[in-house]
């Protein structure tokens, strides 16, 4: 300890450590959160100066009102087929999550992560963008793959690390990657994909291409240095990129205040870099669609990047390794004022007269069967506990384009070990 | 080997207790990292500390390993002793610049005016189906950096004693904890049940303060036929393999990689004339290379066979191929045979 | 190259690469830069919400007007003695810089960095803060040491890496470090000191101390991830810290647009994090003083951190290794509209009737003699070319508190080598 | 060894030419980094490229090594071939996470779907009074990382040929350039003038395209008494020391550290029976350790003496003690004698 000076006339300093409003045992009450009415937020021109979006970084872009009507300037006026497709995709994601969560609990794989309550975000974003645009997702954007028609069975095979896994059992469950569906390889390291998205967008601009990129990050991960690199490079080169912050208010056990949300919104960061910022109701599929559309038009017309904060709530645990009752009240998700995105979109379709409870129930039944069928097919190719002794040489491939001598030696040693362990030649 | 009453503790409990002992003794010790505050860490190593010592002694940090280390440098400069947690060793890289360029060199570049007494704790290693980013063993990336000490315990007794020694040490210590054996030692036979710590003597952990000195290895199994150098989880794999194969090996648990206990190593290898080096990390440029280089430099004329290395393969850690990657009993056995041939 | 889709209806994207207004051969003309009149900027309460400082992040806090008068709410109303002390310190820095630059050119050391044109910033900041407060500087804040009375001779000994160098010849010239003068060890790695300053301030708050910290960074280095860590931690824990950005408009050969200044000011970053931001005329010693004072009062009363952008111009090369005529017009510094900080402070004192040309000339003469005398003393202890073979064992000290066996062995081998090289026992 | 007309070029000119050749042949090659655009880099390695190829093919980057590498990952994913400069190897650490966690593992983790053909160039090494942060040799921090290749040229001919090979390589390459010999080879005698490149055959650099293959070492001096393994600046120190001391050593310039040319090494050591390994980096856990470990593993029964290491000391690089730190002629001589004893 350095000498403490006698500075009697100086007040004592104190460290502020942010604390969420409620902890286990408390009765959560979100009535203090001010939720602006749907339709209230203005919609600036897509070519507006970044600074002009300032008010939208503290406001909340909302389209669906409490009666399920789409209101205000951000209403994207989608046709009923598109709305129904989004509803179906969101429901698919939820059913998929439930089944895979259960599969992990049954010991069929090592790990799973749901996106319950956040389904609107990835699904509506995928819907608003072109299929050729590239996403740099985190681990909670399974909705992108579903909305873009990636086979559920293949997702499951990845989760089971089985013979159908396009990633050859090399990645943790849910760390999907698929170039054809414009879905960049998910990293276990938080934040890294953010400057990568900017780099992809810069490349597209360098080549005079017309495709744009979208990068995704969680509220917690915005604290990483990569967040800053991404915003800096995006601003400097005016990269055609959309930078999404999915603010579900929790990292693992720490709340968004530990990432700085007490002092400013995540959308507000944008304007400080000269990037347009929008704060959007993430549980409102139409608002999400409209915001992504606005940002993509801006990017496509060389008007620069946009950062969009999707305000939502992580309704379940962080992953199968997490039990949130250890750090927040059990009932919080239900009290969350922005509601359930699936219920809200359904209500909208019903209000439009384009949907009803019967069709909804039938869809649920279909989806359940559909996901079960995919799961059956996937499991026919094996689950994790059966893996790890087939095609061992593949484990030594793709470290480099060609296998150097040291990896060849290691592969051979590894095969010899496996032979001895199994008592027969490995497959 | 004990002081005062002991209690059976697993490694997490031992580590937790080391924190508590030091926070009680030294009010300049502060503890932070991702999820370490209210919740007590994803492995619960810091459970209960916030409650006992208050929010300004133990708190959650933003997900910014660079910021965690960077602020710790400032705190150490102020006169505190930060004990920070990097949630997984695989996530230490965003903090690597601050560790290498700042923490490691501060005493040197300021001619001793500013020192960096801090401990950077992090769970490392595989064997838990953690895939590429929850399984790495990056110790060699720190042993190459002058100015930091690298410590890796292999059991609860050492974990507590070494962590206390690390916190009391005037120099910065990178403290890697083998997460595979947090709850029980592991002999590498993934198809057999694990002995819990409670069945092992090294889990008899004294209450209160004691230290296991940095820079001192332990001979965990004396022997005559060959010397096995290991640390962390690999100590258990090595011991089990030696015993299963009826080999009279001397197994040395290095405990501290830098500074290394070269005396114990030299003495043993000069006695046995043979040496096997074990690491879980990828082979090329791992710490095992330094050990092999040193042993042959210093014991060449006593060696009857080349120093062999048992290591992880030079690939990322592949999720489904956990037990093909992991340096387990067979890899050990084959290497032991080779060194003895 | 991935397949280029046929997206005929989509416009071609283009990468924007920022370019400074003038390159070698151009005639620089800064008339387009709008310089707000002195005294115009409002001065908010020190407890104001960070958001309330938004207008001050694009404006420019200026106190000294063109006639050398101090005007407006930011006038710190300093007594003449303090003003004269600042003038003297600023002049000392300039003389010191000139002599050390020349010493490097004469081969007496390897490297030097001047802060010409930026003298007001460090000198006035040091004057505004308490002597016990801690600075985490970059390499252009020699003014802090001068203002705090650190011996010039010791600075020179560090520059010559000679026997009087408190850092034992281990650091590059100008990488000073002195705890007693609250000057943290300068790092060669840009940006690292920024979160360190925040950590020191957090520690002070944890201990209930009353001392605050100030971190320094250049415009170019704000792009490093450490800048973001610093702002994030400062905001989250409301650390009692002042974060200075010295925007001298150039990194080495790249201008501030490559760090993002085309899109937003550096001060504007602050508000996005919920940190108070000020943009200040860095060539106006009174404005600098007033802003640092405001921020330190805010920090001391637990009202949180402030980021201050000091707008200035790097009047000379980046270092002795740099020749700026390779990338910018030669006469730019002279055209720079915010003038010379020393001339402006002098004019103010003259306007106050507290100074005149005679006293000024006398001071210049004194300072010249003073700096020369220090230099003579320092050089009596040796210059760089004579170093490197004395006290070799010290080279192996301070890697650790105690010397481990491997360093002891290396030290002995090194001594043996030196003995052989010199043909005698090294000193 | 040449193709087409040649011109005398120093290393910077050779490197600059490699860029130009590849930017002309392949429009997906983009070049960026701090100060590399208008000004052409602080060492001028990219001089003239922006003028010739335009601002979107060669441009200045923000001072953010993490952002430079991170955006390069995205560009490579798009289908470009980024050739990026890190201004000094000492400043590569803020980009280390992106290199280790992303660049190195992308091909593997995507089962070959996304590859990372990029080159990360950076001047490294001491001998220029650059102090602690302009002198480092961090190659071992990359050789430990599976998935990247590490290349270090020692002369203009190789620099151009290896850089072209690296740009054409389908895998990411970390390309460290020995800045001490940019302008002329250096025999380690800091008190004597340096021979300019123009006096050396390896500075006869062909115009246009040619490659020096990655993974192939060069025997720069054949010999029988012992084998010296070196790379970068140290190749010159080694050669000079061998010649000054009249030792008939075989000096091997590794050129690529990973993947290593093990065949050339083994053949030589089996012939000479003795081996000296040279690196400028700090000793502990340097790449020399891997070399020593490999050589004794694979050539043990041919070795007549331990493999010795000549290295920098395990301290930061101290400004005034440049020539005490630097592994120069005397350290070489003493080690050569030891290996031959
Ligand atoms: C660099 C890095 N540090 C730490 C972790 C461990 N980790 C995984 S997820 C997570 C929380 C992320 O929270 P957030 O960004 O809000 O995303 P969310 O899970 O809420 O979608 C943490 C700390 C990691 N994966 N990578
Ligand atoms: C991490 C890191 N990257 C690069 C450098 C090389 N470098 C030294 S100074 C400098 C320019 C800094 O510009 P700025 O931050 O504006 O400070 P100024 O020199 O203008 O005061 C660069 C690129 C470095 N020292 N550290
Ligand atoms: Mg979150
Ligand atoms: Mg600058």
Automatic annotation (TrEMBL), chains A, C:
It holds the Pfam family OxoDH_E1alpha_N. Keywords: Oxidoreductase, Thiamine pyrophosphate. CDD domains: TPP_E1_PDC_ADC_BCADC (cd02000). The keyword Oxidoreductase applies. Its EC number is 1.2.4.4. It is an enzyme of class 1 (oxidoreductase). The keyword Oxidoreductase applies. It catalyses: N(6)-[(R)-lipoyl]-L-lysyl-[protein] + 3-methyl-2-oxobutanoate + H(+) = N(6)-[(R)-S(8)-2-methylpropanoyldihydrolipoyl]-L-lysyl-[protein] + CO2. GO terms for biological process: branched-chain amino acid catabolic process. Residues 11-50 form the 2-oxoisovalerate dehydrogenase E1 alpha subunit N-terminal domain. It comes from the Bacteria. Residues 90-383 form the Dehydrogenase E1 component domain. GO terms for molecular function: branched-chain 2-oxo acid dehydrogenase activity. InterPro entries: Alpha-ketoacid_DH_E1_comp (IPR050771), DH_E1 (IPR001017), Oxoisoval_DH_suAlpha_N_dom (IPR022593), THDP-binding (IPR029061). Its cofactor is thiamine diphosphate. SUPFAM superfamilies: Thiamin diphosphate-binding fold (THDP-binding) (SSF52518). Residues 1-38 are annotated as: Disordered. Belongs to the BCKDHA family. The branched-chain alpha-keto dehydrogenase complex catalyzes the overall conversion of alpha-keto acids to acyl-CoA and CO(2). It contains multiple copies of three enzymatic components: branched-chain alpha-keto acid decarboxylase (E1), lipoamide acyltransferase (E2) and lipoamide dehydrogenase (E3). This is 2-oxoisovalerate dehydrogenase subunit alpha. It comes from Sphingomonas rhizophila.
Automatic annotation (TrEMBL), chains B, D:
GO terms for biological process: branched-chain amino acid catabolic process; response to nutrient. GO terms for molecular function: branched-chain 2-oxo acid dehydrogenase activity. Transmembrane segments: none annotated. Keywords: Oxidoreductase. Pfam families: Transket_pyr, Transketolase_C. Its cofactor is thiamine diphosphate. Its EC number is 1.2.4.4. CDD domains: TPP_PYR_E1-PDHc-beta_like (cd07036). Residues 9-184 form the Transketolase-like pyrimidine-binding domain. This is 3-methyl-2-oxobutanoate dehydrogenase (2-methylpropanoyl-transferring).
